[in-house]
Amino acid sequence: MRQTLTIKILLVTGFALFGACNHLDPELIDAVQTRLGRIQESRPELEDALRNTTHLIEQIQKAPIGLRRSPEFGFEQLASDIESLNADYRKLQEKYNALYTKLDGLMGNYVDGQIKKKVLVEGMNNFEKTMSEFERDRDALALRFNEYSAKYARMSATFAALPAPEQAALNSRYDSSAVSIPKPEHRPTVKKPVEQPLENTSENTEQQQ
Known about the structure:
By secondary structure, this protein is mostly helical. Helices cover 77% and strands 0% of the residues.
């Protein structure tokens, strides 16, 4: 029992001496690891949001052409907004990955003795600011997704509520494959007159004489 306690004391003391000799702050390292964990916890939510936005794009691409092309529904503007939302989600994901890589790299450099504690502390402070912006942007994008999803649902319901003949008329109006190509006008063939050979007047004159 006494021997086990002695080993534990030696291990703790050795780690403390190692950190002191290398100027490492264990509490600072723990704080950085905690913040890196916050980023990792946000990853599934961001990936799900991007996946949902991609699925919404796939949905609107399958909408009837009458809904997509009729100006009264406002589909083209909505489709543009959803594409913009998808691009913003991808930018946020890149920002998220860069944030994790930078802070993780700073901690590695600090442990290796390549940078001082002050640099890592500054990096952690910048992380707090960037993470706050990240969460704010993520929430704003989520609101936009809910708005666009609801708008498309209403739009689809309005089109589906139209009488079937009216839906068909809208679809055929904008469906190029449904447009009949006019046949060339049939004109009667005009026969050219047969040219008669000219008579040799000199021979006729001799015969008459």
